[in-house]
Design brief:
Layout lengths: L1 H20 L8 H14 L5 H10 L3 H9 L10 H12 L11 E6 L5 H10 L6 E7 L2 H9 L1 E3 L8 H7 E5 L2 E4 L1 H4 L2 E5 L13 E6 L8 H14 E9 L13 E5 L4 E4 L5
Parallel strand pairs: 1-2, 1-7, 2-6, 7-8
Antiparallel strand pairs: 3-5, 4-5, 8-10, 9-10
Helix pairs in contact: 1-3, 1-4, 2-4
The structure holds S-adenosylmethionine.
Length: 271
Amino acid sequence: MVEQEEQEAFQKILSFILAKKDFNGEFYKAKYIQRRVMARMRVYGISHYNDYLKILFNDSEEIQHLFERLTIHVTEFFRDPSVYTAIETLVFNSLKPDGRNDHFKILSVGCSTGEEAYSIAILALKYFKFFKVHAIDIDPQSVQFALNGEYQLSATRNLTKIQIQNWFQEIGSGKIKVLPKLARRVEFQIQNIFSLNVFELNAYNLILCRNVLIYLTQDKQQWLFKALHESLKDNGVLVLGNTETMMGPARQLFICIDTSNRLYQKTIMIN
Ligand SMILES: C[S@@+](CC[C@H](N)C(=O)[O-])C[C@H]1O[C@@H](n2cnc3c(N)ncnc32)[C@H](O)[C@@H]1O
């Protein structure tokens, strides 16, 4: 009975997050969500979902704290540097568009505070005159941070001195700010990947969806692989995080072109 009550309380917590933050906890691995909710419960020294539900209802700021816990924002410039070398070799060199008007389009899914989107833009600037990076994340604060484009110099270990000189300006207090010539290549948007019409069909040459899938249920992973497949142009490439693997039916949709760096090329479906 107590267990059933607890389960009902947990479901109510999920409904509350969905209503307030458009974050559907059912789409994420249950263990992941439970661990995150429990981390908030520990702050109050409580161990029952029922008690936490009361806090959520009574303290209007708690939902924001919970949402921050549910969306993990760890990221960095050129995270896993060998992935970016692989993108240069296998994508930028071979998929280079022919005509000057052929715009190269890149999507960063779950872009967090923007480091991934700016990194891929820095790289693309070496290869393309016309390109655009579109970057989306469900978390408004992260997207605002990305738009602001200010980073601690100490958190840029994978950027070379030349890259910092070319694309950032020092603004004091140990911080650097993205220069407009880089910023205008990236368009950030607050978007939930599970909302309708988020993924433009046949639009992108390259999609980075790194360290987002690991948190999702198997069903939603498959759903996302299909959506990303449809959003890629023919021969377009999807890049996953270093600990993410493509499993199940999605393997029919892509060919793995670099196993260790998790690069997958769209397979064109012949009906
Ligand atoms: C761990 S970060 C990954 C950042 C970057 N892609 C990287 O690999 O360095 C995961 C990001 O996915 C975002 N995210 C989680 N669920 C999302 C959803 N439903 N729609 C859009 N973004 C989501 C989180 O807000 C978070 O910023």
